[in-house]
Records
---
Amino acid sequence: MSQTGCPFFDAVFCRYIKNPLKQYMRGQKRLYFPAVSAQTMAMTNTDQSSAGKPSIFVTRRWPADAEAALSQYFVPTFNLDDRPLSAAEMAAGFASHDAIAPTVSDKIGADIITAGANGKGRLIANFGVGVNHIDFGAAAAAGIAVSNTPGVLTDATADLALTLILMLSRRAGEGERELRAGEWQGWRPTHLMGRALQGKTLGIIGMGRIGKAVAQRAALGFGMKIVFYNRSRIDDISAYPARQLDDVESVCQIADCLSLHCAASADTFHILNAERLAMMKPDAYVINTARGDVIDETALAAALSAKQLGGAGLDVFQGEPVIDPALLAAPNTVLLPHLGSATVETRTAMGLRVVENASAFFAGQPLIDPV
Ligand code: DGY
């Protein structure tokens, strides 16, 4: 039986109102009431009844609990297909909302910021701690505030750095590939021998929250010695021995494993370059869970292929998600698709941190995590 008297509106009614309501009543689905957007049918606002709440344009899907929390305090527009949005779509989204919540994979350039500032946009509440994808000069010039989500992803990212260290040192990637290819010929004393971590030296570049969490795990969990480079003096490490060295070169020379934890900036661009790679021990590992920009990937691939390095474990890449073919071809690498913060707990906490920052901002209070 027709619901509305028109087949087109019947279809829309069933798809967006009747069926979701039925699923909602059965507890299968949270509600989305779509406002048909000028951009795409798949950009939908949740509960439109919440007049007076600030609106927020969310570029990618979040874990369910974080989306639910956001919907309590804001009128969000979610990108239901979770596809990468174009700059024009983000500009239109920011201009028509009070805030935008982008992620590391959204380049928020001057075009988007200016469009936002010329429209309703007042806040960029980033879902993530790294903010090198946002043009700060343009945000400051346009009077747009920026927040991020530090702290909540420290443990998850440190765990992933240790995952990479272990996968390399115990040759887990190679072993898994061998087994799946049907090439495992059985146990033998010399098969895929890796190297122990105990007593080896972990070098850390950037001793912030994540660098310290990695050092703690490596020292207390795996008996590694810690040396590190940090721009400013670090005096608050007492639970394990850690030596601060004066320059990046000294850390490169000593480390059996070098892990990068500095933020991406003009100062840290290619901080691990061909010259510094050449100073490293020939069996040393390089680990990167920070940003692709901090390593010269061409130089790294060349050093790996020339066997001037023991291996590399990378979770981040300069042109991600496109990976330099030279890195893909390089031996002894473990390559992951930017999984540092990818636990349900952490990604939910990141979303909640966005909610807290945006709530403070629109209540006229200082941002909790201003950038
Ligand atoms: C960040 O937050 O900067 C991470 O790289 C994404 O989790």
Note: Residues 104, 128-130, 153, 340-341 surround (2R)-2,3-dihydroxypropanoic acid (CB under 6 Å).
---
Amino acid sequence: MLDIQTSLAQPIVIRREAYAAPDWLVPEVALDFALAAAATRVRARLSVTRNGAHDRPLRLDGAGQRPLSVSVDGVAVNDWRIEGEELVVPLTGAAHVIETEVEIAPERNTQLMGLYASGGNLCTQCEAEGFRRITFFPDRPDVLSVYSVRMTADKALYPVLLANGDPVESGELADGRHWATWHDPFPKPSYLFALVAGNLAVNRGSFTTMSGRVVELGIWVRESDLAKTDHALHALKLAMEWDERVYGREYDLDVFNIVAVDDFNFGAMENKGLNIFNSRYILADPDTATDYDYDAIAAVVAHEYFHNWSGNRITCRDWFQLSLKEGFTVYRDQGFSADQGSRAVKRIEDVRGLRAAQFPEDAGPLAHPVRPESYQEISNFYTATIYNKGAELIRMMASILGPETFRAATDLYFDRFDGTAATCEDYVACMEEAGDVDLTQFRLWYAQAGTPRVSATLDSVGSRATLTLEQHVPPTPGQSDKAPMVLPLRVKLFGAESGTALTEERLVLFDRARDTIIFEGLAERPVLSINRGFSAPVIVESDRSAADLAFLSAHDDDPFARYEAMQQLMLDTLVASAVHGRADHEGVIAAVANTLDDAGLDPAFVAEAVLLPSESFIGDQMAVVDPDAIFRAREALRRDLGRRLDAQWRRALAQGVAPYAYTPEAKGFRRLRSVALGYIAASGAADAAELAFAQFEAADNMTDRQGALTTLVSGTSDLRIAALDIFYNRYSDNALVLDKWFQVQALASRDDTGAVVAALTRHPDFTLANPNRARALVGAFSANQRAFHAADGSGYRLLADQLIALDRLNPQTAAKLLPPLGRRRRFDAARSGLMRAELERIVATPGLSKDVFEQASKSLE
Ligand code: PHE
Ligand code: ZN
């Protein structure tokens, strides 16, 4: 018998270059579900056609189940066999009808892939390879089929039966059961299949498309959540209108349904005509959801809706092309969100997210190109690189083309590849053709992993300045030598004395290892503003002085560049302090004061600009991360900022106080108030805890309440205990808000956070079975730099224990918790050794999933 360790030691690696077209196509499929939580019968009728001249049998993916029956052209056969997880059926002709029947157990499905039970309802998740857990099928995205679905279920338990496409017929059966049929006229890959059976209430709306078709919209939730669905429904209508206006994309079915479920591995899923969402990205009211939640709901609703074109009408040829749909769709949802409020603030948030998640990924053992070359488990590649760096690639191409040409290029792409399974190369070729540009070298962005580093030096003599640029792409696993990439850098010069622009903004396409750019006719000493708007997802190292950064933070006319200058100034200050113990805070204090006093600025922008870089981002700038030194340096700067600008923070705290409204202005004031509260607490002011507790109690919305609670839990006042209890008791029946209760404690800056989190893993409301809850406690804890990196290794052990336990239930979600342990090489030898020991313990766990094995073994290399 093969033992698990040996079989895991030779993982099956799927390679991009091994792609071959499918042997058999499935133009049509009819599915018949006899639904029940304990045992569901699935009968599938596939019309298959031989693809090309070959004599190979039909191979259908399954997931360990055996068919109850197999028939070919209406006749039961027994010459089939199971090879690994595949059902192999010998066929002689060019076209056949294959029927199979299986029985599956949704209520025992803890992986939340395939058909599973959540909150008493039944639902599906098929991307990437979940359909094979429902029935035997060529479960790959380049096999497109027209689906007809019939569902039968107990009517009392499952009064609502939904599937992809449009409803066709429904009826009653004698034994308390009922049935419904749905038909989706658009050929789709199996990963877009969905059904839902449940006891659900609906918030209905309608949207009239640009050609005048009326689409019936429905947001389906449990009855008691119905009042929390208006925001999502409104966002859906805005997204439908936006995609028509900005990309010319119209919806194509008569109905569009969204179902919210509590147990979900990711954020949401774009199944054709039947999106299924993690309830955290649907449910909102002011009392339970923060501004952040509201924004995220609109963004995810838009994202999944936009997939109808960038994902469903045009899908991916294979999973190596995942960024074709995800990078582009993130770019589209970012554009949508930017149009709902402040463009600058949205860009700042997106860049902050990229730096928090993608840059570390790109610098660690799990780094991979936007178009990967190989994988063991595709679920591990739903990453910040595929999604967020992928979106940056689209953004760079849009910058190179300019807005009108970019639109012509996306029109060409949608037109040419509609109804097909396409590749990243197809997309780039459309950009190239419509833009009349050569993107040969740009394609390296899809192939080379790692964040490019650019050094920029500006030397000026008299009226002439020379900008010297150098680029370097660091080695990543499997890629030791990198070629120079095309970096579109927006550059502008400002006069150091006048504070006004000396040049127009230029888009420099920097595409060599080293280059120089000359500026002539400068009337005064220039200050360099570079990578404005974060035009390229790179790390810029410039030798700009603290004075020049402070100057830009006050005078640059690109709000993103102002933010960036301030961040750089803060980073330089914090790194100097953490590494060399030099703590000169004056430059930052003056720049922050200046920003707070600038009445012309949007409060949302001010809140972003005055926030210090995160502990982990500071660590990313250091040769060896020292979490304790970083914490001390950051707290010292926070305390000084708090004390010296006490009057400004108190003024900000009093600003814009008004009854709750979800508007960009009101959101901006709330954000700034919570930042101000944090600084007042950091100053050590005697009244800080009372101020926070007063805000906690008086709040008429979750943003203010959670903001106050966040401040309280990192303080020493006993009011923290009172606030946590009040919060818990008030929301003990609301899972999404309880997640916040766990999360706030896991993120707290306290000496005892590790012990608190360990105790919370034994709290009666803690469960690993719900991915949101697992992430709220364990995921948040491992993002808490000081607590997770406790010198005794207790944080690493806690994560590994939880991860191993979760892997038995839900490998996908377990694997997503692993990356923090993979950053071990960034830390001192002692911590690195402790992290390594935990990774080794994980890899040695009997019965480990291939999801976790891939992530852990790569992290050990
Ligand atoms: N395709 C989904 C999205 O990004 C993400 C997802 C992947 C959801 C896998 C579930 C499972 O929109
Ligand atoms: Zn997506």
Note: The pocket of phenylalanine (ligand 1) is lined by residues 125, 127, 265-266, 268-270, 303-304, 307, 326, 382 (CB under 6 Å).
